[in-house]
Design goal:
The complex is a heterodimer. By secondary structure, chain A is mainly β. Chain A is 0% helix and 58% strand. In chain B, a hairpin with a 2-residue loop joins strand 7 (63-69) and strand 8 (72-77). The chains are: A mainly beta, B mainly beta.
């Protein structure tokens, strides 16, 4: 099945804490996993991504941990800032498709409290 | 993101016809229409590659896409239904197989 699941649905952390957003999938043919950040009234924007050949991808305060065997990944946001408050979508791309069809999870709404 | 512009940004309709417009200034070959309903993730509607429609995700026939050139995308909507209330995003990627999608700011459609 082409499903991507995210948890929690919403998350509140204090400024400076690490926020952990979880994602899991079922289709083993997914090979690329981008995380999109969406602020209210705006379109989603690519934040960070990982391919299935890696188990970790880091970009500043944002890190993806990927467990291919368990079909799980997580996004860690260290030293969370109020400006990180947004909805985060985990997505997955089908390896077999000749076009870029992304399957999006339901999203995690993150609130960072000062 | 001013590199993908959409208009109008907000639209309130009864059972009327209207067109949404999108233009990308990134030189990308592939353009997409996505629908995002309230509290839901974006869902692919249509995909064009070099002006050719290559993907139609079983969208109601009242939605008709048009790609007049490789940088422009239109979405014609006729006799809208309340379930059509959503934000419609235009997106593009360098190639149709490209991994990175760039989204516009969306057109919010409210059906009354």
């Amino acid at each position: 099945q082409q499903q991507v699941r995210q948890s929690p649905q919403s998350l509140t952390v204090w400024e400076g804490e690490t926020a952990i957003l979880n994602c899991s999938y079922e289709d083993s043919t997914f090979n690329y996993f981008p995380w999109y950040q969406q602020f209210p009234g705006e379109g989603p924007a690519l934040l960070i991504s990982i391919s299935s050949v890696s188990d970790k991808k880091e970009d500043g305060r944002f890190t993806i941990f990927f467990n291919k065997r368990e079909k799980k990944l997580s996004l860690h946001i260290t030293d969370s800032q109020p400006g990180d408050s947004a909805t985060y979508f985990c997505a997955a791309r089908l390896a077999s498709s000749s076009f870029s069809k992304l399957v999006f999870g339901q999203g995690t709404s993150l609130s960072v409290v000062p | 993101n001013t590199k993908i512009t959409q208009s109008p940004r907000y639209l309130i309709l009864g059972r009327a016809n209207k067109s949404l417009e999108c233009e990308q200034h990134l030189g990308h070959n592939a353009m997409y229409w996505y629908k995002q309903s309230a509290e839901k993730p974006p869902e692919l509607m249509f995909l064009y590659n070099l002006k050719q429609l290559i993907r139609n995700e079983t969208v109601p026939s009242r939605f008709i896409p048009e790609c007049p050139d490789s940088s422009k995308l239109l979405l014609h909507i006729s006799a809208v239904d309340p379930e059509d209330s959503a934000v419609y995003f235009c997106a593009s990627s360098h190639r149709v197989s490209g991994n990175t999608l760039y989204f516009g700011e969306g057109s919010r459609l409210i059906v009354v």
